[in-house]
Amino acid sequence: MASKQAQFDALVRATSGDLYRFAYWLCGQEALAEDLVQETFMRAWRSLDDLRDTQAAKAWLTTILRREHARLYERKGPTGLEPIEDLDLIDEDGPSPDQLGEDAIIRRAIAGLEPKYREPLLLQVLGGLSCEEIAHELRISAQAVMTQCFRARQKLKSALAGPGLEGKVYELP
């Protein structure tokens, strides 16, 4: 039991930050992202014996996280939660401080991408997954992942070079 606990603790320390960032991008809410990560780790603990390749642990956890996020929509239906592409990033009372900066501009540009481009890019940039891991996760070829990530970056560059952003330089991952 002690070795299982040590293995799990190491897994949590190594992946919790990346999983949280990915969960936050999926749902757009801090508390919900924390809940998704916690549920992911609970399910991972129950199935830790099924993990044969520790090198694939991050992809395995990302798969669990994506499924947990999808379960939210199954349980609560479309009125319970809003998918990220429908999030209104400006509150009626005015923008919050985190919505005023360059991060908010980049976040809006990424949220504006079609899901087929946004998801591989987020898995790569926030999740730190390789093209092969993303391909396995999304059930597409590694070449398709590379193409979609390239096109996502091109679309972001175009969106970030739009009106009102002249003179700004944004580094894309």
Automatic annotation (TrEMBL):
Domain RNA polymerase sigma factor 70 region 4 type residues, every copy: 105-156
Domain RNA polymerase sigma-70 region: residue ranges: 11-76
A molecular function GO annotation: DNA binding
CDD domains in alphabetical order: Sigma70_r4
Keywords: DNA-binding, Sigma factor, Transcription, Transcription regulation
Single biological process term from Gene Ontology: DNA-templated transcription initiation
NCBIfam families xref list: PRK12517.1, sigma70-ECF
Similarity remark: Belongs to the sigma-70 factor family. ECF subfamily.
Protein name: RNA polymerase sigma factor
Organism from which the protein derives: Ahniella affigens
Lineage, highest ranks first: Bacteria, Pseudomonadati, Pseudomonadota, Gammaproteobacteria, Lysobacterales
